[in-house]
Amino acid sequence: MPRDPRQIQLEIDAARESLAATLDQLVYRSSPQRLRAQGQAAVQQFLQTPVGMAAVGAVGLLMTLVLVQKVRHRND
């Protein structure tokens, strides 16, 4: 028994709308501006934790030690 052309068109239209919605979600999720903002928020949140503050302190200490070492070798 052949299918009704109107029903086929309704199914095609529903599939098209579903694909359009999926594409809109993919565009939103992969937006560089949104991803950058999300990354910045995550970093800022991490840096406010005790572990984040310790990491910043350790990096600062390491950079200070490297700088002192370079100055010492330059004077030798």
Question: What are the salient characteristics of this protein?
Answer:
76 residues, 3 helices, transmembrane helix, DUF3618 domain-containing protein, 88% helix, single chain, membrane, mainly alpha
Regions with little confidence, pLDDT below 50 for 5+ residues: none
**Structural class of the helix and strand makeup?**
mainly alpha
User: What is the multimeric organization of the chains shown?
Assistant: single chain
- Report the helical percentage: over 70%
Beta-strand content? under 5%
How would you characterize this protein structure?
By secondary structure, the chain is mainly α. The protein is built from three helices and no strands. The termini are far apart. Keywords: Membrane, Transmembrane, Transmembrane helix. The chain crosses the membrane at residues 51-68. This is DUF3618 domain-containing protein.
How would you summarize what this structure contains?
The chain has 76 residues and is mainly alpha-helical. The protein is built from three helices and no strands. The longest helix is centred in the last third of the chain and has 26 residues, at 50-75.
Give the secondary structure arrangement, pairings included.
Blueprint: H1 5-29, H2 32-47, H3 50-75
